[in-house]
Design a protein that fits this description.
single chain, mainly alpha
């Protein structure tokens, strides 16, 4: 039981430390949006590649 309590405390501490500086409602700065955008046609291309790989297996 002591091991489980220590493990839970470590997990909680890690979660709290990992939060970092809080910016309410801000996920990314507007200047950084481009790096998160998916290029046109990338999803379709990935789907075609996945289907080809599945058929080739």
């Amino acid at each position: 039981m002591k091991y489980l309590t220590s493990l839970l405390a470590l997990m909680l501490l890690t979660a709290v430390i990992g939060c970092g500086e809080k910016k309410a409602g801000v996920v990314a700065d507007p200047d950084e949006y481009e790096q998160y955008e998916t290029p046109p046609g990338a999803m379709e291309q990935a789907q075609k590649e996945a289907q080809a790989a599945a058929q080739g297996s």
